[in-house]
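Dear H.,

Thanks for agreeing to be a second pair of eyes. The structure we're designing against is below in token form, covering all 189 positions.
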């Protein structure tokens, strides 16, 4: 409850957010924060852990209706992934901009194996969305899921998010499923 109340404040104010403000947002006394967390840095570390955790986006992906057409399922997945990555970037960016470069030295940092497990869990969740259309695909489900995520991550890392040339989730799904050519096998004029 404390971390949930703190996240939007951390995203807005970075490390400059006060524990008093977080307590008011959570509807608790400030002393309660320090019964749960040793100090503000520990609370900020918990906020970072929550922001980077894939749990929320995995629940969103699992809630996508498998009866929808594949392109719509992938568009919903792209929306969910973009929201997750934006949320993560906003929190980490606000902390960085406010001078907090890293967490406490003794704080647990995600190990590469944890990041790999997170990526696998996202790929598996997207694979489940694609699975009902397995027979219509010319590539294995897992490869299509990996291509989808790679395209989405590359777009977001490249700074195309929100730009006027940035593809919509529906366009991303359409190009992944049908390519960029008007007709399969056609040549540009």
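And this is the sequence the design step returned. I haven't edited it by hand at all.
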């Amino acid at each position: 409850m404390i971390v949930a109340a703190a996240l939007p404040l951390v995203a807005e104010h970075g490390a400059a957010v006060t524990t008093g403000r977080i307590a008011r947002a959570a509807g608790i006394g400030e002393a309660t924060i320090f019964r749960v967390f040793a100090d503000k840095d520990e609370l900020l570390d918990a906020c970072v852990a929550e922001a980077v955790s894939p749990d929320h986006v995995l629940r969103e992906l699992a809630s996508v209706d498998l009866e929808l057409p594949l392109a719509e399922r992938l568009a919903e997945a792209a929306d969910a992934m973009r929201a997750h990555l934006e949320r993560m970037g906003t929190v980490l960016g606000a902390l960085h901009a406010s001078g907090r470069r890293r967490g406490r030295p003794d704080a647990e940092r995600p190990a590469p194996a944890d990041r790999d497990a997170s990526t696998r869990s996202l790929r598996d969740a997207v694979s489940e969305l694609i699975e009902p259309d397995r027979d219509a695909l010319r590539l294995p489900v897992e490869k299509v899921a990996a291509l989808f995520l790679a395209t989405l991550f590359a777009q977001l890392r490249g700074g195309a998010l929100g730009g006027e040339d940035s593809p919509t989730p529906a366009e991303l799904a359409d190009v992944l499923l049908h390519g960029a050519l008007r007709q399969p096998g056609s040549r540009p004029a």
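Two observations from my side: Residues 68-83+103-178 form one domain. The chain has a mean pLDDT of 87.

Warmly,
E.
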